[in-house]
Amino acid sequence: MRSGQSSVVTRAVNRVRHWSVRARDRVRSLPVRAAHRGQGPPIPPPHLMHLVAASEDVAWFLDGGQRGASSLVSILEKNGIRLESLGSVLDFGCGVGRVLRHWAGLQGPTFHGTDYNPLLINWCQKNLPFAQCQLNELGGGLSYPDESFDLIYALSVFTHLDENLQGFWIKELSRTLRPGGYLFMTTHGEHYFGQLDDEEQDRYRGGELVVVGSRREGSNDCAAFHPESYVRSTLAREHGLEVIDFVPEGALGNPRQDVFLLKKPNRA
């Protein structure tokens, strides 16, 4: 078989596998969807779940979102911060509300969500009425005024941006944080080192941000890998943010991703 024919066959086989996995997940999820009906916010349709998480497995979607919410609360409390005591919280890159949905019954903060995909935001606006969700552009900033939020969390967002967009968004999120506010973000760290080739590993070991697939920013096809030193020196210090906590592989809802908790200094 010629190489061109071989590549066509390989793509066809991969396509069949992809759709068989999606079909399996849909069938397996039917009883979970039925049992969940009326037990909280609706479950998104399969195609939207797959768009943000590359899976249509409802049990995984619910469990992963709950784990993400729990790890956020746990790390905040470890640092003396109670989510209930905050005034305003933003889920930056909220997708289809995988984590946001788990704040539905929480009293205290006002919750906001933003994402660049209008399909996801439209679903959140219709199905998560306790939160105020709005659209943003991938590189166009946020419409919120300066100093709007006490906490912003970005789960598996900076993991899919190139370096220019990372600098833009860290500055923009800092702008919308109140003095004394917190940014909770997750990154691909040491656990993902083996996914890099030799040249990329050398750059990572040298403290550089490594981005693979940078032409597809904002999608799962773009992957960014953050050495701890890069986050501390470039993303945090250069933008006036202080690293309050670093938890390797601490993002339970985003398996094996690292967690950084950053703080915007209080006014002098």
Describe the structure in your own words.
The protein has one domain: Vaccinia Virus protein VP39 (Rossmann fold, 3-Layer(aba) Sandwich). The protein has helices spanning 3-36, 46-53, 58-78, 118-127, 163-176, 198-205, 228-236; strands spanning 88-92, 110-115, 131-135, 149-154, 177-187, 210-212, 223-225, 242-251, 257-263. It is 39% helix and 21% strand. The protein is built from seven helices and nine strands, in the order H-H-H-E-E-H-E-E-H-E-H-E-E-H-E-E. The termini are far apart. The model is unreliable at 5-16 (pLDDT under 50). The chain has 268 residues and is α/β, with parallel strands linked by helices.
Brief summary of the model shown:
The chain has helices at residues 3-36, 46-53, 58-78, 118-127, 163-176, 198-205, 228-236; strands spanning 88-92, 110-115, 131-135, 149-154, 177-187, 210-212, 223-225, 242-251, 257-263. The chain is of the alpha/beta class and 268 residues long.
Radius of gyration: 19 Å
Beta strand %:
15-25%
Quickly give the CATH architecture: 3-Layer(aba) Sandwich
CATH superfamily: Vaccinia Virus protein VP39
The ordered string of helix (H) and strand (E) elements is HHHEEHEEHEHEEHEE
Q: Strand pairing plus helix content: what structural class?
A: alpha/beta
If strands are numbered along the chain, what order do they take across the biggest sheet?
3-2-1-4-5-9-8
Topology-level CATH name: Rossmann fold
State the major sheet.
Answer: 7 strands, mixed
Through-space gap between termini? 71 Å
Question: Which outline best applies?
Answer: globular
Runs in which pLDDT lies below 50 for 5 or more consecutive residues are 5-16
Mean pLDDT: 87
Helix content: 25-40%
List how many beta strands DSSP finds: 9
Please indicate the count of domains: 1
* Name of the top-level CATH class: Alpha Beta
Number of helices: 7
